Fold this sequence. Notes:
Elements: E1 5-7, E2 10-12, E3 14-21, H1 31-48, E4 51-57, E5 61-68, H2 74-92, H3 95-98
Antiparallel strand pairs: 1-2, 3-5, 4-5
Helix pairs in contact: 1-2
Amino acid sequence: MSKIKKGRGYVYSIQYHIVWCVKYRRKVLTGTVEEKLKEILFKIADENGFTIEEFNCDQDHVHLLIDSKPQHYIPNFIKALKGVSGRFMFENCPWLKDGLE
C-alpha cells in the first residue's frame, strides 16, 4: 500500500509500474549484470527525486514500481532510467554491446 503524501495545497499518491525488455529479448540480466543494473537504477532514482519501491528483474526484462511527485514528467524519468542505465551498463559490461556473455 502506498503512503499518502502532502504537498502545498494537494495530497497525492502516484505510482507507476514500468516494464521494459532487453533488445532482442536477450537473456543477459543475470548475476553481476543484474546487481549492477539495480545499483545504477537506484542511483538514478535518487538523483532525480523519485523512489523505486520495487525492483524485479528476469533474464530479459525489468519491472519497476516507481513512486513520484505530481511534478515529475513520466517521459523524463523513463529517459533517465533507460538512457543513463544503458550507457553505464555498456561502460561497465562492454560484452553486452556484442550480445555475448
